[in-house]
Write a structure and sequence with these properties.
The structure holds 2 protein chains of 2 kinds. Chain A is α+β, with helices and mostly antiparallel strands. Chain A has helices at about 5-10, 65-80, 100-105, 105-125, 190-200, 225-230, 235-240, 300-305, 340-345, 395-400; strands spanning about 15-30, 30-50, 55-60, 130-145, 150-155, 160-170, 170-180, 210-215, 260-265, 285-290, 290-295, 315, 325, 330, 345-355, 365-380, 380-385, 390-395, 405-410, 415-430. Chain A is globular and about 75 Å long. By secondary structure, chain B is of the alpha+beta class. In chain B, helix 3 packs parallel to helix 4. Classes of the chains: A alpha+beta, B alpha+beta.
Chain lengths: ~425, ~450
């Protein structure tokens, strides 16, 4: 008998999640093609609610169904009362996240793309060590529950990561970029060219005087500001009472230039799909609008606790229960061209990348990070790379007043779309 | 399975082939706040075939379905032929082992009912929640796993190993208005259920510290003499120095090799650093690494001088050195890469009291909340810290982040304690997407002059 029906006979609610995915990956290390890899992933995860209590079990051995059933029911015997019900059949928007051009990318084509990226970066920095990693995947999952809901999602995530390490004496420079999408994009070299530009600018090392100065965050650097917000906007941290944003919906908590949207329906986004991992239709969720807090992102459980509907942000791996997670997180573009933002800076710091992202007490909004890569701005121009520089602050204070947000935005870390952000004054720590 | 593995190896046309199969069963019980978040029981079974073609490269196939090993070998060979390494990849020779390693647990967690595990965690969670009315959130988590790993290679190695692991994590979050503070504690061993019983005082410590941090002021940024406690010193030497000793970073990078030339002075005469995967009872301990190389003690810095590094068979061959038993994989989804096992700063001769007494104004930084390095640069946030004033420990401070340059920081070590200890935290090390890999860390108290402390 089908696993869903068997469990249904013994429990009030049942959900069966079945993953069947494969991927191909090629890896260039230290300027040469080192390895290629194929991966096959299959597994089953079940959630059951029996006597109002939730149980969970999973297995990557799809033949071990007897044990899976027993484990799920045993786990339910000790589970906590469940505040929600699995959703019934629902229509979802059409979301483009499958592309046969990615599905059919062969190892040899991946190798060609990797070689093109590597050749480009080597020409810019013949002394550097280039690494490139490409991974194309075909992700399939089906989700069925006791209501008769049945959801099937097929996605083709493509990841392109590249980096250059350059060591000169005791000076180490590392630059890195990772892009992801689910639709094929011919413009895959654009982020590589941007990375190359950073490498050129980093050739020259210049001193920076510590103190208060304007700080311009690039889209990659702005993640240091966006990351604490991402945690603060999680419905889980809100219902647990640890988010500084809890209970402040409708308040002007940030500068009016700040808008944050989670959009799982974006065509080709790395986090895009028609449904989330609990069978809830995906949507576009406005989190912050012109600085006013509008809401949070939730999965079924945290939404039930908060007394609101799920925003379709349930995210899970095979071996873990869902948790709320952003899908494609977009920081809205501003009105100022980047060139104008730069031109107005007499002396300041450009933050490109930090060390230790997410370390420390970031739920409070506090961050303190040395820069992995930063530039000095003088009279509206980048004049060179700075070393031994750290920044610290609290995003809930800093983002109350933003000097400018750029018209341009870029994708960083696969599913974050961010602008350049200028803060008028921040304390910059520099080691002489 | 033994015969099927041998038949699959036999079918390979690559220069070298290895198969690693893993079957793991794991249970987890987690409370968050007053809520039981997880009671779960999972089965993870799968494998990896890794092939080397000397004129190509590495080819890898990973899978859950272990019925089609011959086909997986063929896929991996195809991948290996697609790669084109500029210079041929060689593997340094190792003694070929055939071994069967079983463990006897004092109290086997596989036989402990879920009800008992839940009651244990619930009890600890009550300790966290009950410590103060300022505690607004907790994370209290128990995990165990028992893996059977089979490794076989075309060179004739055949090693079967049982790997148990049990861990308890405590996180307490205290809040006073906008002021939110967290404290963590954890304990883990490659052992049975008995080691996670009776940890109430560890839970209490986490909760008390989170509450105390609410009253702590942010540290004033600047340069200070700093004493780091054994736990932070262990994390520091692992993160800031250990990763540079991993030869996969060096072996194809002439400039990096120069930076890490053996014989270079890295610190004072009394500084010795080693990695040892063969010590019994530690989290990073294995008899063999995931290429079948026996583990051993490897000195990295001896009396201040760089004397060694950590290798896989590939990096050792490339650098003309000997494999050190440091090729490790977090699970069957990954090929082994060069990793640390149990890394430590060897004990010195200074007492903690002597370290303190000549510091007029300094910082005592304890435990690591997180740490990252980008080669010469590192950054660590300490879990908690105290000011040192006039040779004595003074008030608690928060937001203490140590940042600096590895080379100058090691040179600035001016005292190493006589109070060495191994720590046994949960969690693990991350590298190349492989995390968490269980590792051991050990150190005594260490005093460093002129450390940059970030603060507000």
């Amino acid at each position: 008998m089908d696993i869903l029906q068997r469990l249904r006979a013994q429990a009030e609610q049942v959900e069966v999640f079945h993953i069947q995915s494969e991927s191909t990956q090629v890896r260039f290390e230290a300027n040469s093609l080192k390895a290629s890899q194929v991966e096959e992933i299959s597994g089953l995860a079940v959630r059951v609610v029996k006597d109002g209590r939730m149980g969970f079990a999973a297995s990557s051995d799809v033949t071990a169904t007897e044990k899976l059933l027993a484990n799920a029911l045993e786990s339910a015997a000790y589970g906590d009362p469940t505040p929600f019900t699995f959703p019934g059949p629902q229509d979802a928007p059409d979301v483009a996240c499958y592309d046969p051009r990615i599905a059919e990318l062969s190892i040899s084509r991946l190798v060609e793309i990797g070689q093109e990226i590597m050749a480009y970066l080597r020409e810019v920095d013949p002394e550097g060590m280039v690494s490139v990693e490409l991974r194309r995947g075909m992700e399939r999952y089906t989700l069925r529950n006791h209501t008769g809901a049945e959801v099937a999602v097929t996605r083709t995530p493509l990841t392109i990561a590249c980096g250059v390490d350059r060591v000169k004496g005791d000076d180490v420079l590392m630059v890195y970029d990772v892009q992801g999408a689910t639709l094929w994009n011919e413009g895959f070299m654009a982020p590589v060219q941007r990375l190359a530009e950073k490498l050129r600018l980093a050739q020259q090392v210049v001193p920076l005087r510590a103190g208060r100065m304007p700080v311009l965050f690039s889209p990659l650097g702005a993640i240091v500001l966006g990351f604490p917000l991402m945690l603060g906007l999680s419905g889980k941290n809100v219902v647990k009472g640890v988010s500084p944003l809890a209970g402040r919906c409708g308040e002007q908590v940030f500068d009016p230039r700040l808008t944050l949207v989670d959009d799982a329906t974006l065509p080709g986004g790395f986090g895009s799909a028609a449904y989330d991992d609990e069978g809830v239709p995906h949507q576009r969720t406005v989190l912050v609008e012109n600085g006013v807090l509008r809401g949070f992102y939730y999965d079924l459980k945290t939404a039930a606790r908060a007394g609101v509907p799920s925003t379709g942000n349930g995210s899970r791996g095979l071996f873990s229960q869902p948790d709320p997670a952003p899908t494609n997180l977009l920081w809205g573009a501003g009105e100022t061209p980047l060139a104008d933002m730069l031109a107005g800076i007499e002396e300041g710091l450009w933050v490109e990348n930090v060390l230790g992202l997410g370390q420390g007490n970031i739920i409070s909004g506090a961050f303190s990070n040395p820069l992995a890569l930063g530039f000095k701005i003088e009279k509206g121009q980048i004049v060179g790379r700075v070393k031994g520089v750290s920044i610290a602050g609290n995003v809930y204070e800093l983002l109350r007043h933003v000097s400018a947000v750029s018209r341009e935005t870029e994708w960083v870390y696969q599913n974050f779309n961010q602008p350049y952000v200028l803060l008028e004054e921040m304390n910059v720590i520099a080691r002489e | 399975m033994h015969d099927r593995i041998l038949a699959a190896l036999e079918s390979s046309t690559a220069d070298y082939t290895e198969i690693r199969l893993e079957e793991k069963e794991a249970t987890a019980v987690a409370f968050r706040g007053r809520e039981l978040e997880t009671v779960s029981h999972v089965i993870d079974a799968g494998g990896i075939v890794r092939c080397l073609c000397r004129d190509g490269g590495w080819g890898i196939a990973t899978f859950n379905n272990r019925d089609a090993l011959v086909e997986k070998v063929a896929q991996a060979v195809q991948c290996a032929r697609a790669a084109r390494s500029d210079t041929p990849i060689e593997l340094a020779p190792i003694p070929i082992a055939q071994d069967r390693l079983t463990v006897t647990l004092e109290r086997d967690f596989r036989g402990v009912p879920l009800a008992e595990k839940k009651a244990l965690v619930e009890g600890y969670n009550a300790v966290l929640l009950g410590a103060s009315d300022r505690i607004v959130d907790t994370a209290c988590r128990y995990n165990d796993s028992f893996s059977r790993v089979t490794f076989a290679s075309s060179e004739g190695a055949f090693i079967e190993e049982e790997r148990p692991m049990v861990v308890m994590y405590f996180v307490a979050t205290a809040r006073d208005g906008d002021n939110v503070q967290q404290a963590h504690e954890s304990y883990s061993r490659l052992a049975g259920y008995e080691i996670v019983q009776g940890l109430e005082s560890l839970a209490e410590t986490a909760a008390q510290r989170a509450t105390a941090l609410l009253r702590a002021e942010s540290v004033v940024g600047g340069r200070y003499p700093v004493i780091i406690d054994p736990r932070l010193a262990g994390v520091f030497i692992h993160e800031a120095f250990g990763h540079l000793s991993e030869a996969d970073f060096l072996y194809e990078n002439p400039a990096a090799r120069e930076m890490m030339t053996l014989g270079r002075r890295f610190g004072p005469d009394f500084l010795t650093v080693f990695d040892d995967g063969s010590l019994p009872g530690l989290r990073g301990t294995h008899k063999y690494d995931d290429e079948g190389t026996p583990t051993r003690r490897n000195d990295l810095i001896r009396n201040g001088i760089l004397v060694g590094r950590l290798h896989s068979r590939e990096t050792a061959a490339k650098m003309g050195e000997t494999p050190t038993g440091n090729a490790r994989a977090v699970n069957y989804r990954y090929a082994p890469i060069v990793r640390m096992t149990n890394t430590a700063i060897a004990p010195g001769t200074t007492s903690f009291a002597d370290m303190l007494q000549d510091i007029e104004l300094g910082i005592y930084a304890c435990d690591a909340y997180g740490g990252t390095t980008e080669l010469e640069s590192f950054s660590f946030s300490s879990g908690y810290a105290y000011m040192i004033r006039h040779g004595q420990l003074a008030e608690m401070v928060k937001d203490v982040i140590l940042a600096g340059n590895l080379f100058t920081t090691l040179q600035n070590i001016d005292a190493i304690g006589d109070d060495f200890q191994w720590s046994h935290p949960g969690g693990g090390c991350g590298k190349g997407g492989q995390a968490p890999l269980p590792v051991g860390m050990g150190a005594p108290h260490v005093r460093i002059q002129n450390v940059v402390i970030g603060g507000k």
